[in-house]
Design goal:
By secondary structure, this protein is of the alpha/beta class. It is built from eleven helices and 14 strands. Strand 7, helix 6 and strand 8 form a beta-alpha-beta unit. It is elongated. The protein binds adenosine-5'-triphosphate (ATP) and magnesium ion.
Length: 314
Amino acid sequence: MIKVENLTKYYGYNKAVSNLSFEVEKGEILGFLGPNGAGKTTTMKMLTCFMPPSSGRASIFGFDIQKDSMEVRRRIGYLPEKTPLYHDLKVKEYLELVARLKGVANTSIRSSIERSVESCGLEQVAGKIIGTLSKGYQQRVGIAQAVINDPELLILDEPTLGLDPRQIIDIRHLINNLGRERTVILSSHILPEVSQVCHRVIIINKGILVAVDSPENLRERLKKSSIIRVKVRASGDPGRISEIISSLEGVLMTKIQHADEETVSLIVESVPVKEMRDTIASVLVKNNIGLLEIYGEELSLEDIFIKLVTKEPA
Ligand SMILES: Nc1ncnc2c1ncn2[C@@H]1O[C@H](COP(=O)(O)OP(=O)(O)OP(=O)(O)O)[C@@H](O)[C@H]1O
Ligand SMILES: [Mg+2]
């Protein structure tokens, strides 16, 4: 339904989004996860036809974001990063204005406003001035304007940013409900957040796609072990060396990769959160085993993951 191919955006010489390719199925809630400056907003601006890509292409419902941008715009709802609210208008007045701007037919304006108000839980505040509402309710108004044209695709840029924990839970429920009938793409820099709302998560960092997976699989990958390679001087039974390392806390598995008369090479798998190299080195020294080499394998994906796992507010 949504197909993104090699989407790239330069701001001057700065490559904000680099060769991004992914697909989104109808009905999916897709999370865009990445730290500040990852390129989330830039990608969303391109998909919503706010800004053309420097290269690459994307189609939404079969319409090209550049060639058929009016067709795309008609079918999507967008909550930008900075919610475009008119603080002096009443909620209903504002929604009417947006409905007219989005070309909702005159005869449907009333029902569209009612539907948006209801689906976003705004019944109590529909007659109030937007500027007097809490941040959480203002965010609901922002989402209500995005769904006013009953779009098939909803693109929400950091919909819970700046909200208190209670409001965050409310907005998550709202997104889940809206996602029942529509496809949703939302961005966040909090992994637990996208895990709770999204079916699938795309992780981007510095404009580059790092991983695409379900939240469950991502969690599994996060838990996965680190690999350390160890080479020692042979001293009697290689199995004994393996046993000594295996007995350390945090070591999951030790495997002898190569053993000859002079050296023994082992692969050690350990829990990723713990730096094991110094512990392994000291236990070997303590047992009079000559350490020749020890190094951790590059785990850039995990490094990025760990950086990305921003703690959720309590
Ligand atoms: N209008 C612009 N002009 C120049 N550079 C920009 C512009 N907008 C964004 N950038 C740069 O592009 C990169 C990606 O920014 P973008 O806003 O897409 O990231 P983001 O993932 O949405 O970050 P955040 O979590 O802070 O919202 C950053 O390096 C940013 O400084
Ligand atoms: Mg952003």
